[in-house]
Amino acid sequence: MNMNPQLMKLAALLQKVTGEEIVADADLGQYINLLETLDQANLQDPKQYPWRDDQDGYSKTIRKLIGHFPMVTPVATAVVIDKKAQILLERRSDNGKWTIPSGIIEPDESARNCAARELHEETGLMVDPRDLRLFDEFSGKPHVYPHGDVIWPVKLIYVVKRFWGEPKPNFESTELARFKLHELPENVSGSTQSIAKAILERWLEVDSW
Q1: Distance of alpha carbon 137 from alpha carbon 189, whole angstroms
Q2: pTM summary value
Q3: Short-list 145, 163, 137, 152, CA closest to 77
Q4: Residue 37 has pLDDT above 90, yes or no
Q5: Statement: residue 12 has pLDDT above 50
Q6: Which CATH number describes the domain made up of 71-207?
Q7: How far is it, in rounded angstroms, from Cα 158 to Cα 146?
Q8: What is the SS3 assignment for 27-96?
Q9: Domain spans of the chain, in order of start
Q10: Quick one: residue 86, left, alpha or beta (phi over 0 = left, psi -120 to 50 = alpha)?
Q11: 98: helix, strand or coil
């Protein structure tokens, strides 16, 4: 395939950033169109992003631009907890680990609204965002997904005590269950362990909320 030097440089750069082999003019055309549309977007209004993939959401759209490159990511986490010091965990379908429901904050939503949305999507439970109580933030450690994406999450941890609905896992998890803070399952994520430990250490404070 004959390419001018500029296209060869672009292909090499895209291959390095995305981790994917760039083999044809058609591949380059896709990236060029995406970058041109991004350049023309009105970035002051997230709801009007013409390049955003409504099906995949914000983070997966960005991944199309940067591949597996590490990304600092704001995350909202909803810790459903009861008077018996039990928390609701989900067993993830991608790695089988038990985790607390959470998700990446979209450009057009608040952290509280994100926590409420993710809780509903992943467990079927509903909550008024105004009832969420900010517990703490966790950051500074990377997370590598099974498919290779790397993020440095900044997690905002919210405690949930008032909710309604029937718990039911979605495609992201295989089951839901409650566990005592000091009796977590063996196959639990590191971040979930850290959050549970922090809540247990401040249980008198959390229990009074």
Answers
A1: 17
A2: 0.72
A3: 137
A4: no
A5: yes
A6: 3.90.79.10
A7: 26
A8: HHHHHHHHHHHHHHCCCCCHHHCCCCCCCCCHHHHHHHHHCCCCEEEEEEEEEEECCCCEEEEEEECCCC
A9: 5-66, 71-207
A10: beta
A11: strand
